[in-house]
Amino acid sequence: MNVRKMRLYDTENIHSGEDRDEYEKDYARLIQSPAFRRLQGKSQVFGAGSGDYYRTRLTHSLEVSQIAREVARRLVKQYESLSRKEHPGLMIDPEVVECASLAHDLGHPPFGHKGEEVLNRLLLEEHGLKYEGNAQNFRILMFLEKRAGSGSGLDLTASVLLAINKYPFCIDEPGRLKGVYSKEWEGIDFLRKAWGMPGHSATLEAQLMDLCDDIAYSTHDLEDGIRAGKIQMDRGFFEDDRLVAHVIHEITEDPSYSEENWVNVDQAAMVKHVLIHYLQQWEEIYAECDREPSRTRREMKARWVRKFANEVGIIDDSDAGWKKVTLVREGKQNLELLRTMEILKKLAWVTLIKDFRVQRLHKRSEVMIERLWGSFKNYENGRLIIPPDWLESYEAQKEKWTWERLAADYISGMTDAYAEKVYAEFFASRSGSIYERD
Hints:
This protein is mostly helical and about 450 residues long. The protein has helices at about 20-30, 35-40, 55-80, 80-85, 95-105, 110-125, 135-145, 160-165, 180-195, 205-230, 235-240, 240-255, 265-290, 295-310, 335-355, 355-375, 380-385, 390-395, 405-410, 415-425, and strands at about 310-315, 320-330, 330-335. β2 and β3 (about 330-335) form a beta hairpin.
């Protein structure tokens, strides 16, 4: 059996034809799934529907998949070790990375990271359960989504499931903030053991998807911020010491912060250097583009994507006894460029997410999710107002899943607009017909 193309719940492929490659089937199942379509209505940075320009989770996922696919193709040509197929987790298929990139954000609830934060807090406080977007991906892919012939999700290949699994451990272990919920972890752990995956190492494909996600965040979100006027392309804005201090604070407070990556680095000096270099590059491209802001934004974004993507490589990870996909220069990890990427990511964060108007929207979304949760969380009340197919799913699976988890599934699957619609039906004075289709 080809362990890379095995399917957890359909190992004999009895529901698959022979006319397409297994990864092509995965791709079709993903892009035709309701969960994928709903990404068009979920916030990236700005609220979905706030304009016809800004990115949503859907456009972000498509852009990540394009970057990841092209980088994967280059790596396959560049690294001879990949062609030797020494280990299923040390291989890279562009089609697998593309599928993983398309699926990597399916678990995000409405209203972006604020929605994730609120659902996690409510579940933890009231039921000791966790909610996390990466873990919710696997709830969707392995249980909530349905396809003909399978009662257990989209029934994806092992390669794609493990390529989505950038946090390869059970989130219910003490101290874990990210990972996979325990029920889905049973399946993921089975696949990892079948592959002989070491420790908590992720496959090369999962690492590549994750890095390309960071590339997209650190370039595309800035483009949206400039377009929205949140990032002002002038020296007064970029030379403000308060901006530098905020960026440093976000870097050092990030749970993934590694002091080793910043040893002997003057953080303030480097942040200032990156910010001024970014502005100078903008000024140069602005002149080249005949002072057209739209062309300048697109060219600026393209150059930074190219700069990061061209440096993606594979090195030995001696500590883990595995391989690492990272930014590489002359055979070594390019820490300077990794730090630059982190600075640009945090620039987007402090200027967009921390903007007081965005925070007001976050507060509004927090109130909505809290009240929606209050409406659905109790079975006796919730069963009367949840769609019939969800109630049927709960009745069929209640030996495996609690009502509270299913209620969180329902809320987290909503788009921003649908969450507002349901909220308005419950708590706002409005007219409408009971025959409206959800």
